[in-house]
TrEMBL record:
GO MF term list: methyltransferase activity
Protein name per the record: Ribosomal RNA large subunit methyltransferase K/L
UniProt source species: Pseudoalteromonas holothuriae
Domain S-adenosylmethionine-dependent methyltransferase: 24-307
InterPro entries associated with the record: SAM-dep_methyl-trfase (IPR019614), SAM-dependent_MTases_sf (IPR029063)
GO term, biological process aspect, one: rRNA processing
Tree of life domain: Bacteria
Coiled coil location: none
Amino acid sequence: MKPTALPLLDKHLRHIDVLPTEVRRLFHGRGQCFPGLEHISVDWLSGQVLISLFKEPEVGFIDALNVLVAGWLQLPLWQSEVKSVLLHHRSRDNCELQVLWGALSNEQVVQENELTYLLDLGNKQNNGLFLDMRCGRSWVKSHASGKSVLNLFAYTCGFSVAAIAGGAKQVVNLDMAKAALSKGRENHRANNHDLTKVKFLGHELFKSWGKVRKFGPYDLVIIDPPSFQKGSFALTKDYKKILRRLPELLTEQGQVLACVNDPSLNAQFLIDEMAEQAPNMVFVERLDNPPEFADINPEASLKSLLFTQRA
């Protein structure tokens, strides 16, 4: 990231005349649409502005960025709406979070699609809600009524919150990170959801098929894995192990929302894997990504693909 590219970021943010009422990405450099700013993003977290660096910048970049921040804070909109400006060094080992201005609120309450989510800000890789998945959560909310849902790699249960809000009769969340599931339980409570409809399984998936089948069959299975999780999941090797289990998990009209967020893999990877491992599943459509996540190469961005059982 070059200091000479920062005027592009300055121009982009100064053109925003209204800040969103809900959580949103304000600047998506990772879409490769802004030369020299490919490793920076800016998110609006309902009062806190989070600037994330995904690569160590060139000398002088941080100083130049601080000058820009000082200028933004003179804008009437920022003076009335912004409570703090944070800089997250995602590429550093400790994921250092700096407060450039204001005071850090470690727990941030945000809204998305009229639902409440609790974010954890600090020296960690992720804050609890992947903003590029907004359209996926919206789709689930709109299509979950009366359904039994299995949410694999549930993390903080964003899909689960959307499903229960949409009228799902049951959601089973599975993730080996029990702390993330605990935050998911808090997310449901923040929305006054009936927790008797929600299950939280803190297990490694490949050792827990019996537990997963116990609560099935499912009308909708959501698969949103990490690209790589040390010791437990490697996407290109392990995704197929999940897909071949789908026949024993799904109802006759069951659907699958399968996701990949690895820029090196395109949508066809999922379509081909599904055809090989679960040939009774038919590809229906790829869900849109939020418009603020525009990417010069759409195949490098989030892929959320919907499949359904063959009639």
